[in-house]
Sequence to fold (506 residues):
Amino acid sequence: MTTVTEVERKEEVRKMMGQRVLGLRGDDAVAYAARQANVDVISAYPITPQTIMVEELSRFVANGWIKAKYINMESEHSAMSGCIGAALVGARTFTATASQGLAYMHEALYAASGLRCPTVMAVACRALSAPLNIHGDHSDVFGSRDSGWMQVFCENAQEAYDMTLAAFKLAEDEKVLTPIMVNLDGFITSHSLERVNILPDEVVNQYLPPRNAKLKLDPDKPVTFGAMALPDYYFEFKRQQEGAMAEAYRLMPKLWRDFAVISGRRYSNVRPYRLNDAEVAIVSMGSTSGTARYAVDELRSRKIKAGALNVRLFKPWPGPEILKALMNCKAVAVLDKAMSFGAPGTALFEDVATSLYGLPKGPTLVNYVYGLGGRDVTIAEIAKAAEDSLKLARQRKKIVPTRYMGVRD
Amino acid sequence: MSQRKKLSWKEATIAGAITTPKSSMDYKTGLWRNQTPEIDYSRCTKCLICWINCPEPTITRLVCNPERAVEIDQEYCKGCGICANVCPVKCITMRAG
Fold:
């Protein structure tokens, strides 16, 4: 009797579902997904390391492979504004940016979420100036943490492709109507050529039928969007946005289920790895999660009970799942690829700490900052962080100052 | 503030979208006022400078009225006092309240 390996099983599923394999960079994969989603309007401005996406999309439009209006904007602020206008007339909109571009967009981000525009934006996460740096870290997207956008983090090109498709489904749900950022790590994911399973166009067309907005700008049925709301109403509209976030979180299991039906790939808000009996957990987002799993294997080979947790859904925050995954650990090392200057911890760490706060005997939490400006992080470094965290737990330390992985002391 | 019933976040239209026309008229901005302009029509020269300068504009020109050239719409006047300031004969006074 022959045993079927995981790889063989996946290959079987792929063939059964009529999926092709293409060699794509993360950016290509996102652009390919946006094409298959039949976006109506692309309003964008190029910036490294996202440029491949807008280059590819403009090629698709020029070649007539997609019936979209491509608007070459003069800045990211205008790019987002273009998406807002198009989304309000009921169009399916897509844009992409990174780093300084996202920062320049900042004001319009709040308008997009406040006006409930279900725009999908891919962000090839990159460090912020100064000093100028084009490589990957999460400083840019964490800066937009409270802008009312949903955020998912992709580990590889396949996830970038899948998440982009699912993002349209989620954002455009009438109960959600909230914009979403699909974050992929600059260069590490955006520029690495990977094997990507591509769904047939017809399957995507069925999964994402043309958008049918109930409330939109329509000359036959006039509506005002963007009017002023004074102290007597503004608060209610902000509360509505939080209601939409809760609704989105409620919809997530169905979203992943529906996506598994068309693709054979099952996702979840968080991805636990060897966590069942783990004493120490490594929490991370984006491409580092793969490295973290190698570190876990390495630690396990030395009889250290380690596990990893990849947080895919960052906003809305999957609190209950984080709690369930980490509650029995002795130590948790939270890896963040950005600074929160002057704060008690970085963005991911603070959220994890909040989720675990209620536990009477919660794990020791250690905040690690790593890989700023695209600095490599190694398996050995992550394994050491996990070991150190476990050591701190054994010393019954509850709170330790933020640690910096890979910086020269 | 609007005279209509204040809606809860669940009842209000999403994104602050306005689906009924002229709803801004429900905002009686006169309630913001802490000074009220009063015109002494016996001294008014009908020059219309206040009418031109009212930023809202809540000073209405009365074309067919031989006695009064203008009228102040107290429902919407915010009491900024610009009319009293620009009046060349100082016939508009700002009363407290």
